[in-house]
Structures are given as C-alpha cells and as structure tokens.
Amino acid sequence: MLKTSPLAPEHFPEVHQVAGLSLTALRSEERYKGRNDVLIALMAEGTRSAAVFTQSLAPGAPVIWSRKVYAQNKARAMIVTAGNANVCTGKKGLANTQVMAQATASLAGLTPEQVFVSSTGVIGEQLNIECILNSLPEQLNADNEQQDWFAAASAILTTDTYAKAASISLELAGETVVISGIAKGSGMIEPNMATMLSYIFTDATIETQALQHMLKSAVDKSFNCITVDSDTSTSDTCLLFATGQAGKLVSDIQSTEGRVFYAALEALMTDLAQQVVRDGEGAQKFITVKVSGADSDQSANIIAKSIANSPLVKTAIAGEDANWGRIVMAVGKAGQEINFEALRVSIGDVLIAEGDGPVEGYDESLVQAHIEGQEVNIDVDVGLGKAGFATIWTCDLTHGYIDINADYRS
Amino acid sequence: MLKTSPLAPEHFPEVHQVAGLSLTALRSEERYKGRNDVLIALMAEGTRSAAVFTQSLAPGAPVIWSRKVYAQNKARAMIVTAGNANVCTGKKGLANTQVMAQATASLAGLTPEQVFVSSTGVIGEQLNIECILNSLPEQLNADNEQQDWFAAASAILTTDTYAKAASISLELAGETVVISGIAKGSGMIEPNMATMLSYIFTDATIETQALQHMLKSAVDKSFNCITVDSDTSTSDTCLLFATGQAGKLVSDIQSTEGRVFYAALEALMTDLAQQVVRDGEGAQKFITVKVSGADSDQSANIIAKSIANSPLVKTAIAGEDANWGRIVMAVGKAGQEINFEALRVSIGDVLIAEGDGPVEGYDESLVQAHIEGQEVNIDVDVGLGKAGFATIWTCDLTHGYIDINADYRS
Predict the structure, then answer these.
(1) Does B95 lie at the interface with A, CB-CB under 8 angstroms?
(2) In chain A, which residue's Cα lies nearest the Cα of B61?
(3) Domain annotation for chain A: domains and CATH numbers
(4) DSSP-assigned letters across all residues of B346-375
(5) A237 Cα to chain B: minimum distance (Å)
(6) Cβ contact B184:B159 at 8 Å
C-alpha cells in the first residue's frame, strides 16, 4: 500500500455493531498478495435495501448484475472483490459475476438473485475466478454477527491509503438505532449518482421506498459533491441495507423519525465522501469550494465543479500559490450565467476580488498563510443575487497523482 | 524559458513574407526580463480582418476591447503583450488596454479603434503600463514591410518552450498568394472558439464576410480540436488579416478560389494548433484521438474530448501503460449515446476491444511498442453505425505539468 495520505484521519473510527449483519473478509490473492481482498456481508431475513449505481454508459458486469438484484428487491447478501473491476469483460465477465453470486448464495442458503456483487480495480481484464472461489469457506452463518469493521473496510481498498468508515448512533422514537458504513475510493473520482464503492448498514426498520428515497437524496448531498480527478468510475455503487432489527417501522420520510434518520444518514455519508477526497490520489490539501449567488443550485454545482476540476486551480493550490486568477478562469469557462461585474472571490475568508478586479488594499499575505495549511476554502459569489448554492469537496493535483497513475496497472 | 518540448519541430519553419505587413518585436521588461515581450503588426490600407474570441464568460480587457475593434471593421494594426493577461483588472485594466491602442495608433497615424490589443500571461494583476509605453519607438512605418517572423513568434510566448509559425504559398486564379501565421499556447488550453493567441496574415484579397466565415470554419477544425488540460483561457484570440496586396477579390467561399484558399487556411491553422499541443505543458507524447460511429459530429467531439481530457488516460500514456480500460471509462462518462456491445477500441491501429470485451488473442506487445513512441493514436468506434466523427489532438499528463503550474506565478 502507498504511504498514508497526510490528510488521513488520525485513527480508524469506532464503529457501532449493526444487529442482523455478519461481515467476513477473505484473502483470494487474485491480484493483491498478502492482504484481504474479498468482503462478504450477510444480512438477516427482512432486510430492506436501497442502491444507487454509476450513470456511466459503460458499466461493469457487477453493476449490470446488481441492478437486477436491486430490481428483485429481496437481497440478503453482497460480495465485494478488490483488484480487478470486471469491466469491459463481455459475456465471460458477466458469467463470472453470476458465479460469484451463486457461490456466495450457496454459503448461506440463499439464491443468487439475493446477492449484490461489486468489484473494483483494473478495467478490461478477466477475473481469475478460481482464486476467488477457492478463498470462500464451506459455509457462513449470518447469525454469528461477526463484524470486524477495520478488516471489512480494508478488504475493499485498491489505491486507497487508508480504510474508511463512519458510524452514528441515534434515538428514533425512544429506541436506539445505529448506522455504520464503509467506503473506498481514491482515483477515478467524480461520482455521478454514487461513488466508487460504499456500503452502509443500519439496524433501523425503514420501509423500502423511503430507504431508496433517502439514499438518493443523501448521495446527491455527499458522494455527488466530491471530485478528485473528474473521471467517473464504471463501477460506482452505493448500497444501503436496513436489517430491521431495531426501532419501529419508518415509512414516511417527512415524519420526525424519517427526518432524524435522514439527517444522520446524510451526515454519515458526507463523512465517508470527505474521507474519499482526503485519500484522493496524491492529495496534500483538502479543498472546499462554495459557490453562491447563482441562478440555481444546479448552476452553482456546475461552476463549483469547474473550479474543483480545473488542473490549473489544483496545481496552483498544490504549489501554495494564491493564483486566484485561475479561479476566475474556471468560473468563466463553466458556461453558466454570471454577473462578472459583481463577481466576488475569497480564499480563506479573505475577499480578494470584487466586481471584475482585485479589491483595494488586498493583502495577499493573509491568503498565503491560509493556503499553506492543509484545508483550503474557496468561496465564489457569481453576483446574480440569486439563491443558487453548491459545495464541492476536492483535493489538489500533485506529483503523487502522476506517480500513482502512470504506474498503476503495470 | 523552460527546456524545449521533446515534441517540438526540428527547426523554426521558413515563413513567406506577406505583402502589406510590418512586424516589430520590442522589449518592455514588464514581467519577463531580457527577452522581447511586445509585438506590433501594422497592415496596409484596405486590409480586411476576421476575428474569433474566447467564449469565456470572464473575458479579459483586451478581448472586450478587441471585440469593439472588430465590430468597427477598419483595423489596421495590433499590439500583443506577453507576461500579464490583463484579465480581472476592472476599469483600470480596460483603461490600460485603451492606452495601448492609443499609443500604437499614434505611432502609425491611425485611430485607437483601428488597433486590436491582446495580452497573455498571469490573471488578476494590473499591468505596468509605463514599461510597455516606454518600449515603443517614436514612430513606425507600415510600408517598410519588415518581417522577422522568429522574433515576432517569440515575443508573444509565455510558458511555451518554442516559437510557433506556419506558412503556405498557393496559386489562386493564376496568381501567387501566401498565408503566414504565428501562435502561442502551452497551458490553459481547451480553446472554445479560438485558441490562446494566433495571428494569421495573408496578402490575398478576400471579402470581409467570406474571410470571417473561413476563419470561423477553420477554427472549428483546428484550434477547437485541441486540448492540453481542459482549461479555457480568458484571453483566447485568433485574428486573420488579408492585406489585399495580391490576387483578385475572392468573395464567394464556394468558388474554386474560395475553396482553394480555405483548404490552405485550414491546413495552416491545423499545423499551428498541433504545434500548441506539441508544446503542451510537460508534454512528452502527442496523442490523436479519433471517434467514429457516433450519433453526430458533435457527439463524437464530446466523446473524443472526454478521452483527451481524462487525467487517467493521459497519465497512463505518460507511463507508457496500454491501460485501455481507462479509454472505455472516459467513453462511458461522456454522457453520449453509444452501443456498448459494438464498441471498438484500437491503439496504434491494433484492435484491442470489440463488443464489450477484449478481442480473442489480443497481443499487447504491439500496442506496447506503439505507446512507447512519441505519437500515440487512439481510435474508438462507438458502435452506433452512424457517421458522427471527430478528431481531437492532445498530449500526455506528466510531472512537468505539475512543476510548471505549481510554480508558474511565483
């Protein structure tokens, strides 16, 4: 594994156990040697699931399979493999995915259509399916509720430099429920409806439609607000399972319980999404881009992503150069309506430009001090005086990104 | 100046003299020391001009001024300064542009509205206008027809590593006319209707509307088909001047003369555009991306740019890794209609993937040999069986790009 990102959390978080869930990490040696690379999750009967997948028009075999599993709405398990994405592998790739679903199902007395499959890693190579099958035990017991979260979060990593998890406990109508989730992702990160891979589990009892609605909303506010390199994965998958082992049934998302649960879910997913950015390939700085005063939230989002994806903005920040003109460039190229004469650009809460030029007496030393830190904040008001607003999280573009990606596959 | 790009032409080309044109390179020391950084062009009476500017919604003061000059349709001169783009400089920046136009006009007995102004370099800083004014001679004679093309092409450079020019001589209805042009550009290159800066001169006699039409069409086929880093300059300007000193009046673009002239113009501009890519910041490889079988040329263009702008594709090529899965990823994220099951991906004329998986017996060693060269060709057929086609030229993404841009301004 690569050197841990300087932006990594100090330690792996404490993760609440989720009733009705069993996690098993295994070692297949399919591609990576000497580490776990397979994760199996089994869930209790009555588990409801929600799912969001990549919008890529070249989705991988696991996504094609998992969409079918989702449509059947009776999932009780998932298998995740790391090292080979099983994308662009044609009929054989799809057959391999089915074999994995079948093998996982037979461990636990399920049918293949009850098993989500995810794979992450290199694109365009056939899986060594024997390795994966050989790594599986003879049977697994869903009831043992073993949950080594660090092992689980570690088993799904590829170019990530640390394991990512988040967990929340909350009171719902007087009963305690928990939400615990893991994610992976470091490069090929501009999720479009989901991120590379994230799996979230709760023991709460949430009606299926409400669960899906909450997942979709929270993805829009979390994973869809991050970008490392503007590249969208063919394997993006975000799954949310509610085992129904705790609390009363929540079916109305507008009820008090619905809103409380949703707020916790969105906070947890935002935490996971930010952990992905903090592990962005080569990242040295965590950047928050806020755009306000735009015509709509969508317009603000496009402008904020234009800034967050600009190689020139990202390299300037990597070089600790308060070259704010590149931010203006990125606003200008976004193709969205702005009032250039009322544009306001701030870095680290220091107003730099107002109207179409720098403010009188602008003191670059304050911005310089801010930009030398690990957390950089960019705020742009595009001057239309409207309510459109967006926040995007990203990282800088450094030599580390080139090192990792010029030499990833070989 | 940085180390010359390994993709640079072997030598500066021979450039035909254009009747009715005088070029003067000057040294202002406004930002760069010990090199020319100002270029003045004066043209004969009767010169017609065409212009295409950036579509950025945050254009620089020189672009705002030059749009007015173009609208008045009586330009006879231009001044270009390098080192400071005079963008995001508010009213003072616009006043400085006017001062430059005025000073240039007074050298040659013209009015300010006859003088195009271009500036290129850092964004967001006020020009030291005194330096520029002090560099100007007392007067300039348009009739001397002095044309040191290497000096002219060198005076407009910023992070470029070599001077860029191209020249063509052709027969038009039995008379010889010439077209000679220069360009600059290396980073912040995804032109949107024009490139950073390019100036093209001909002694042919082309009616104004035909001239503009030809420039616009040729820009779409040349500068609008290149990308270095997906960033669009606030200063993009492409000017075409026809001094009318040779040949008969061409006013019909569909006439034999119109078509011959246009073909030469497009070839010359494509040459200049490719020179910009070959000088892309940090470039080690020149990449041609062709997309066919798409729904429309526009759709093919979007897919080709998605490939050409993908940091993962560009770093894979930098690392000489035939990681074709990343090409499929970039096709998938483009959001354009494809037939995934009939997708064909080739590198260096070797078919790698057909349908949604690799071809039987694919021999990566052939692709490996190709990708280790300086010229890399990527061909994608998106499988719809339609005529939509596009070619985009780009370069790889290397440590050099990070070096240059993490440390450009300071």
Answers:
(1) no
(2) A356
(3) 21-278 (3.60.70.12), 286-405 (3.10.20.340)
(4) EETTEEEEETTEEPTT--HHHHHHHHTSSE
(5) 15
(6) no
Give the ipTM of the model, two decimals please.
Answer: 0.75
Backbone angles phi, psi at B124, to 5 degrees: 95, 10
DSSP secondary-structure letter at A251? -
User: Testing the interface with A: which of B402, B407, B410 to mutate, by most A Cβ within 10 A?
Assistant: B402
Q: Which residues of A touch B190 (CB under 8 A)?
A: 333
Residues of A in contact with B57 (CB under 8 A): 331-338, 340
A158 touches chain B (CB under 8 A): no
Q: Do B233 and A329 touch (CB under 8 A)?
A: yes
- The whole-angstrom separation of Cα A156 and Cα A118 is 10
Cα four-point dihedral sign A24, A162, A190, B388: negative
Handedness of CA B319, B322, B326, B332 (dihedral sign): positive
CB B312 within 8 A of CB B408: no
Question: Positive or negative, the Cα torsion across B221, A56, B321, B283?
Answer: positive
Q: Which tens digit of pLDDT belongs to each residue from B273-310? A: 888 888 888 889 999 999 999 999 999 999 999 999 99
pLDDT at position A103 is: 97
CB nearest to B231's CB, from A59, A311, A336: A311
- Which tens digits make up the pLDDT trace of A137-161? 988 987 888 999 999 999 999 888 8
Q: Per residue in B199-221, pLDDT tens?
A: 888 988 888 888 888 888 888 88
3-state SS assignment for residue B91: helix
Which tokens hold the place of A295? 């015509």
Whether A195 is catalytic: yes
Q: What is the pTM of this model?
A: 0.80
Short-list B405, B324, B333, B390, CA closest to B357: B324
Q: Do B88 and A353 touch (CB under 8 A)?
A: yes
B58: closest chain A residue by CA: A332
Hey, are the CB atoms on B330 and A231 less than 8 Å from each other? yes
